[in-house]
## 1
Amino acid sequence: MLRKFHGLPGLFAGLFLIVLSVTGAVLALAPALDRASAVIPGAGQVSVAELAGRIVAHYPQTEQIVRTYSGNVIVYYSRDGQAGADLVNPLTGEGIAPYGSSAFFGWVKDLHRAFMLDDAGRAMAGVLAVFMLILCISGMFLLARRTGGWANLLRPLSGSGSKRIHAELARFAVLGLLLSALTGTFMSAQRFGLLPEAPEIGPRFPAEVSGGQPAPVGSLKALGNVDLGGLRELVFPYPGDPQDVYSLTTSGGSGFVDQATGELLQYQPLAKGSVVQQWIVSLHTGEGLWWLGLILGAAALIVPVLSVTGITIWWQRRRSSGKLPDNIGAARADTVILVGSEGNTTWGFARELHASLGKVGFKVHCSEMNALAEHYPQASRLFVLTSTYGDGDAPASARRFMARLDNFRPGKALTFAVLGFGDRQFPNFCKFAVDVDKALAGKGLKRLHSIERIDRCSTSQFSKWGDKIGQTIGTSLGLDYNPLPPASVELELVERADYGLSVEAPTSILRFKVVEQGGWRRYVPGNRKTPSFEAGDLLGVVPPNGQAPRFYSLASSATDGVVEICVRKQPRGLCSGYLYELKPGNRISSFIRHNPGFRPATGSNPVILIGAGAGIGPLAGFIRKNASRNPMYLYWGGRSSQSDFLYQPELGRYLDDHRLTALNTVFSRSDERAYVQDKLKQDESAVRQMVNAGAQILVCGGKDMAAGVKQVIDEILKPLATDVEALRADGRYLEDVY
Ligand SMILES: Cc1cc2nc3c(=O)[nH]c(=O)nc-3n(C[C@H](O)[C@H](O)[C@H](O)COP(=O)(O)O)c2cc1C
């Protein structure tokens, strides 16, 4: 709901908001440019009387003196019957240059205020300001939800791509945009009479003036009492009319000055409403607050990027939520399918189930598990299809499911069935699905069918499960789904570095180049030259006998120009053995699987990287990409510094150029006889301090190491009254475990 509240105005208004914000950013420059060219005497240095006296010496027929919010002084005068206006130097009264408002800024202002369309355009700009207000407020709520609460709003963000860029920039710009939107809405509402405007009541013309011989303007007492900094305008009396007066407006109010006695007559302070109104204009335009104008301008310039990334996110979400043409609303559905997925393969199965159930007449609603509603009023069947990630953890689209389950109010008639997707080679086969099954039963829901687990996307297991569900609900589903094979990438080994033979841990860093498809094949969709990937994504490799693919964490990003992995040869490892035997020039077929849940946060908070053995691969990749020199600390364990110190030269270079802040290694077959978790224990207080300062922890390596690390970190965190699970829920403890 909140997301819709944020997305719909954004989509609708995207293009117009871009025009509004770019023109706003240009206009925001005006106060700063004006200010830069203005001569501004210090406070108390020049009085209005002195200023007027100096100006009159150069412009005997002065009609009016105006001081702009930026501090420029303009004189309006007549000479030889011709009216003119000049910028003047307040210290000398001399003219600097003829004054005229800029045609360019005038044009931009028209575009900004009214899209060149008069009142219709002004109304549109007002509506857009309201949209912007809704976007800012709903965006702040979404950000708080993403960072795990308002107190964590400044916490480093995880994730990548458009979502990350959108959230990071929005966080930077939101206060400026909120201020512009609020003040813009206020000004539009006043313009269209929806809010009252402060009445412009000036002082009444004095009933009596002395009518005596006019004194020189520089000698008038009332003008001598006003500092130039407070002047708005001074209108001169009509020449030769002793009954006329000077009309003075200052930042505090307005009044009249007798041209003979110099007395202040009928002074009226500015009404409170006018002061507020003036502040609102200043806060919107930066008039008189040139520095604020620049901040608002910078925030406005971010709007085009927010619009483009916002539309990209919406589009990606639409696509990944699976082109479900007949998706029924949650409130009307009799059947609900919830999907937990990280790499999107489970969505394909969910789509097939959605289509089959729809075909036999059910009203089916399908969404990600994170979008679990509080209530499905009409539903009597709930299917949960979910994969498992990390070490038995929730995939990205289900991470908030368990927390949302607390507020879930299932109707009495609701029954459920969980279908887990996983890989039997993982010790925690489909563990998250099992957890969900238990949690739903714990909520008092009845099982429509007991949990089943699908191994490595087996389509036959899926189809059999469909048959059983069909029998239970009294109709044939005929689930027949064949996932498309992922786009394959041909790689050629260009370089390898071998380690660890003498300590029975043969491990190699393998660097491949992407083999470009020649001839017509390069035009086939999917045969892209270089796929996009980041360190921490996964390289899928199918071993030669065609069994299920094995995944290796990537140590490089596409921009590095190589595909780099770190492979430890397992004793009877089919795929690791195959890769280990490769020689430069050999080619393999592979595919990329994105793993956006395993990425270091950006920002100045420390990042603690922990790994052992080949687990150093993606961690080294993160350090290589740390161009902004965020504090990164690496804890890594191997067997022997002489034999399997992977990436030793690179890490030295990263320390030198500060991409890596500190390196802590430990070797189990040296005198230390210790593992990486022992090293963490030794560094207990430093680790605790870093976590207390907002550090994020990323762990990569074998499951035993990960379990040991988790145990030690839990102990280290005890005095902080938090633990690994709490950090994990905040996106501050990420694991890539195999
Ligand atoms: C990094 C990683 C960790 C995984 N961890 C587990 C796990 O702990 N248990 C399991 O059964 N499957 C695990 N899997 C396998 C996935 O659950 C399986 O490939 C699933 O089909 C992915 O579906 P999805 O693309 O919809 O997320 C893991 C896969 C990867 C790439």
## 2
Amino acid sequence: MEIKARAPGKIILAGEHAVVHGSTAVAASFDLFTLCSLRFHSDSENDDTLNLSLKSVGLEFSWSVGRIRETLSHLGGPFLSTPTSCSTEAVRCIAALVEEQNFPEAKIGLATGVSAFLWLYTSIQGFKPATVVVTSDLPVGAGLGSSAAFCVSLTATLLAYSDSVSLDKNQQGWLAYGDSDLDLLNKWAFEGEKIIHGKPSGLDNTVSTYGNIIKFRSGNLTHIKSNMPLKMLVTNTNVGRNTKALVASVSERTLRHPDAMSSVFNAVDFISKELSSLIESPTPDDLSMTEKEERLQELMEMNQGLLQCMGVSHASIETVLRTTLKYKLPSKLTGAGGGGCVLTLLPALLSGTIVDKVTTELESCGFQCLVAGIGGKGVEICFGESS
Ligand SMILES: Nc1ncnc2c1ncn2[C@@H]1O[C@H](COP(=O)(O)OP(=O)(O)OP(=O)(O)O)[C@@H](O)[C@H]1O
Ligand SMILES: C[C@@](O)(CCO)CC(=O)[O-]
Ligand SMILES: [Mg+2]
């Protein structure tokens, strides 16, 4: 039997990086998905391999289950209902399994994703032969949470076959996990993110798991109900970067300038809290919709200034900011920065002509504009035919 899971990407409205250092962040799911399918091999197939096909990045791997058992069984596990961190020893053993696959040098940045796969698979399912296929609409390494969607969709398929979760396997179409099962899933996905990111806050996997719009601080989430339309233009600069390195660079700057950086993180905390109250406040309140949008734009612009202080902006991001500002549309980077994607709020009454003009100008610079719904469902699973 085949099982599929799909997990959304995310945009961060405020608080990236600062959230790693304990500040509040506000994020929403973004309706581009990573899809993972899992099929265990039956005895009659006589196929004793674990195969991983990463379609969107053009990579295929295959290990004999015996080889994986020989390398990893001394680590204990499966741990299933006890999400467990990948120890230094486990990282070393898994790296050996990844290296044996002659990873193409040009794609070596993707090796952490394969390590996360091996850790999650063997920790949850042990040493069973299977084929796992991952496809994605999300650009990889662009700030839209591809690593989290990868870990969440993979974990969702792995847990679906376990007794630790309760799912009606006869139900047709896409279905959601129950809340306590989502908590387990989210914790496992976080362990995968740790392998990819080094020191994640848990924000990205939490948004991908639960969906909607959330306020997040130190591992705790609060669901937010927006009272204003949040139409966002997402511009991909197509400049590749890696979240792990950017998170580490902010930590190094924090070690060099602890007091100054603590004030920066504190300011971001206030921005995120004000932003979440603003979008939740009833309209019309004291403020008209236009005034609310202007405040939101201002908060996003202030957050961008602080991200520049953290050293995670980039020349390509600055070009996007300058271009959208010509149309009186402030923007901010979203995700880890250093390239990747930029977020621009499109006010409800903004004319379609302006949107077309700004999009055309951005695309003429070689950027790619994406529009997708935000605040939709989190991870879902499908046992039968998916629609
Ligand atoms: N579809 C996928 N197939 C294989 N690996 C993936 C896929 N999506 C993500 N990954 C893994 O995640 C890594 C990219 O994660 P990274 O955190 O650097 O960027 P991101 O998650 O896209 O952006 P951000 O963390 O800023 O939101 C890749 O190098 C790879 O290891
Ligand atoms: C940069 C960061 O804040 C968000 C990446 O999408 C890292 C994290 O929260 O783990
Ligand atoms: Mg990531």
